[in-house]
Design a protein that fits this description.
Radius of gyration: 15 Å
Oligomer: single chain
Number of helices: 1
Distance between the termini: 31 Å
Number of strands: 3
Shape: elongated
């Protein structure tokens, strides 16, 4: 179930400079219990831990003065 205002939809589909990801090794990939995102700025993964689940959350928050790379400069 997608929650939140954007329901997991990308806000700026043409802005290749905006986005966030979590990279996992092949060993850790086998421990993934759940994963998802809230648009292009927040993503998470829940891993099976030795005692309890481990949540990893990645958040991208651009600063107000972001000028490079701009949307038009990225492909």
């Amino acid at each position: 179930m997608k929650k939140g205002k954007r329901k997991g939809k990308v806000r700026y589909p043409n802005d290749k400079a905006a986005g966030v990801a979590i990279m996992l090794s092949k060993r850790v990939q086998g421990k993934v219990q759940d994963f998802g995102s809230e648009g292009e700025r927040v993503c998470y993964v829940r891993l099976k831990g030795p005692v309890t689940s481990i949540f990893i959350i990645a958040v991208y928050i651009p600063h107000r003065g972001r000028v490079a790379p701009c949307q038009d400069d990225t492909n």
